[in-house]
Amino acid sequence: MSLPIAPRPAQGAGDQPPLSPALVKARKISTACGACKQRKTRCTGGQPCDACATRNSECIYNVEADQRRKIANQRNVQDLAEAQLDLNRYREVLGGMIAIVRAGNSRSTNELIDMIRSRIDLSSLAAYVRNEVRANMAVEQAFHTIDFNMDSGLDLPSPSQLLSRMDSGQQMPLQPSHPGSENTSGSTSNYDPALPH
């Protein structure tokens, strides 16, 4: 004969014993503190971690050393965003310099050249270029017409090929001529796409 199952006891605040640490699943942490890495012990991830608190040692985490995929990807995304901002700033300065040379008056062009030759710091040069672009309508319009697409679709000669052609007396064009483009300068181009590049 079977015995009836006893009813479940009512759950009160102190009725259930706490789970033993062996039954609790270990929480994974992103990276161990420096002391645990040096001791090659498991780090609990607190501030301070349990091992450092027990030993009364300094508990320092190196966030840059965290190589978990999610953390590393977040860091890579941040680095790429910062690099993109830097590239945009450099592009604006370069475009401004080109616009000053193309559409600026001789005073602004000569000032730009003098500043570059004087080895002025880049932030001062960038400020000058920005101010010139804003102050001169023709320079600003020239800036906005610059095509920053540098992918010509053609392989340009390497620096060593350029030097060997210069040594042999061949003229090198500033831009490769594209099929169907008109040469408005009246000069002839020595660029030959059939030559090895």
From TrEMBL:
<keyword id="KW-0539">Nucleus</keyword>
<dbReference type="Pfam" id="PF00172">
    <property type="entry name" value="Zn_clus"/>
</dbReference>
<keyword id="KW-0805">Transcription regulation</keyword>
<protein>
    <recommendedName>
        <fullName>Zn(2)-C6 fungal-type domain-containing protein</fullName>
    </recommendedName>
</protein>
<feature type="compositionally biased region" description="Polar residues">
    <location>
        <begin position="158"/>
        <end position="191"/>
    </location>
</feature>
<keyword id="KW-0238">DNA-binding</keyword>
<feature type="region of interest" description="Disordered">
    <location>
        <begin position="157"/>
        <end position="197"/>
    </location>
</feature>
<dbReference type="InterPro" id="IPR053187">
    <property type="entry name" value="Notoamide_regulator"/>
</dbReference>
<dbReference type="GO" id="GO:0008270">
    <property type="term" value="F:zinc ion binding"/>
</dbReference>
<dbReference type="InterPro" id="IPR001138">
    <property type="entry name" value="Zn2Cys6_DnaBD"/>
</dbReference>
<dbReference type="GO" id="GO:0000981">
    <property type="term" value="F:DNA-binding transcription factor activity, RNA polymerase II-specific"/>
</dbReference>
<keyword id="KW-0804">Transcription</keyword>
<dbReference type="InterPro" id="IPR036864">
    <property type="entry name" value="Zn2-C6_fun-type_DNA-bd_sf"/>
</dbReference>
<dbReference type="GO" id="GO:0003677">
    <property type="term" value="F:DNA binding"/>
</dbReference>
<feature type="domain" description="Zn(2)-C6 fungal-type">
    <location>
        <begin position="32"/>
        <end position="61"/>
    </location>
</feature>
